[in-house]
Amino acid sequence: MDGLGNMSTCTMHDLMHDLAGWIAGEKIIVTSSLTILKNIPSKTRHLFIMGDGDQREEDHVGDGLGNASQVRTLVCWKTLTRNEVQQVINNFIRLRVLRFVCRDPDLDWSILDACTSINFDKLKHLRFLAFNCEGRKGLPNSISNLVNLQVLELSASKSLEELPKDIEKLVNLKHLELDAAYAGYGTHMPKGIGKLKFLARLPMFIVGKRSSSIDELKGLNALCGELTIRDLGDAESPRTGVYVLNEKQHLQSLVLDWGRYYDVDGDVTSLSIHHEGIWEMLKPHLNLKKLAIQRSYEVVKIPNWLSGLTNLVEFSLQDCEQCEYLAPQIQQMPSLKRLTIRNCPLLKGIEEEDCEWPRFRCLADLRIHSCPRLTRLPTFPTVEGELKLVAVSLAPLARTMKMKMRGESVHPLSKLTKLSLKKIDDDFESLSYHDSSICLVSLQELRIVDCCTGVKLPSSLCSSASLTEIHLEECEMVEYLPPLHGLPSLKELTIWDCPNLKGCWWKKKEREDEEWPRFPCLLALHIRDCPNLTRMPLFPTVEMLKLERTSSEALVRTMKMQRTALDRPLSNLEELELGGMNELEFLPEEGLCNLTSLRYLEIYDCPKLATLPPAMRHINSLRGLFIRDCPKLTIRCRKGEGEDWPNISHIPLIRLDWTFLQG
């Protein structure tokens, strides 16, 4: 299911697939060779040719095709030349479904005449056509003669720029599949496309001087699913009272992309009136669930009809460089659950905001990227999915955490499960509110990336008892972590690229023997590029441990710790990776004896590590040992002659400097 509740994919059980194939018999043939085209069984109606790659000479299509006229479906994933495609079309005249890939290395497709390259005229019965002519910018006009065609799929044609000129002849066309991500800016829609009354699937519509008018959309009321309208900045001045989208009740998702800059005689007033008219004619039906506005460089206000979209679930505003305020109606939409604002450098907040009382009553997912001036956003206490802030101020978050809910029992952000903060320049101390611990009681994942904050992170972000994952990455200024030992649910901890990180906040009277255990439920720990991190809580319960270019002190201390006979630190460890640890000279033998669950051990770039102790013999669970760029250790672990070989010879799989000694 997709985000709007529609079924996107489905699967068939292998046994049901085999049963269907057995019942079908020769009616359906699946093969990997083109030679089947020379001798097609008379009962065959559906033919699937799978695979790709270099074709052998005998695999090419021959002059005679056996029983080709009886085939109704031909799906060929092997690459064909233009002549082979034409021969197939001329022989399979009763096809209903055709899919193929065409590439002719001997011809320059970019200069070929689109009208004469491939002729589809004989396929009068064709209902489904999907093909990719690599390097082609246009399509053969003969496609327009397929009057029974219902599906035309061109989503794989990355270089496509033009559709057939007489596309209005395809009166039965229901699905026109185009990929907006691949199409170039030269792509335009042919005039007459608005006459396809049954067209239900049109992912992309391009307006502009070369293409059909935006008025062409008015008659396509059968459209459903998603629609992207591109280059709206080039649209002609609309006629008064013309609405092109308001009757499309089955349309669920709409993207309005204004594209490149457009000017109207250099007159700012005319430009504003021009855009207001376009906004008005784009008013969608009330059933719309998803709306995105992109690259609106001139328009500074969101259209007033936005407040009438009572069923809107998701709204995004992207690359609107001149937008300063959001329309106040946006905070009153009753069904809005996901809000994304990206790359709006002048955006300050909600227009005419007169109070801090929350308006986003149903908002569950909020993501804000690269909006440095955005400081006045209405509070969002109901967010329960992901809150992602990138290159923005922390002021809206701080205000939300401090707000009072006016008699309501639910605290702000008490349902938030994932918090991501990236490229934040504000001091995190603004989040150190005395009641903040009641705000994040459901927080499960915390991710802080590339934040130039002070030397400390507030304990309010790391005090939730529900936290299961913490990721700290590329924070060069962070020197200490808040006390993490109060996190009984923490299972995954990742610390990357924090060169100044030294350790955690320690109590003055805290002693080393009071550190057992700090992470009672930690299962995965990954520390990379933290050379100064020497003091951190111990991790006796982990199952996966990766230490790269960091100190080995915490590892050695954890392996040595033992209070009672029942305390076996790292007894659950299954994967251990040690890399770039220049000071590591040995692995504690007494600690290795506790690694009774270890399955894979990888050691690399540890120049001082000289030996693997005899305790390795007792790790019977070990299945793989990988060593590279450890010159001293490499000599001692050589098969049959190294001093440490008896300690590791029982391991089934051993790789030494990319050479497999066993396995």
From TrEMBL:
Gene3D superfamilies documented for this protein: Ribonuclease Inhibitor
R13L1/DRL21-like LRR repeat region domain: residues covered: 214-344, 442-498
PANTHER family referenced in this protein's UniProt entry, alphabetically: DISEASE RESISTANCE PROTEIN RGA3, LEUCINE-RICH REPEAT-CONTAINING PROTEIN 57
Protein name per Swiss-Prot or TrEMBL: R13L1/DRL21-like LRR repeat region domain-containing protein
Source organism (scientific name): Linum tenue
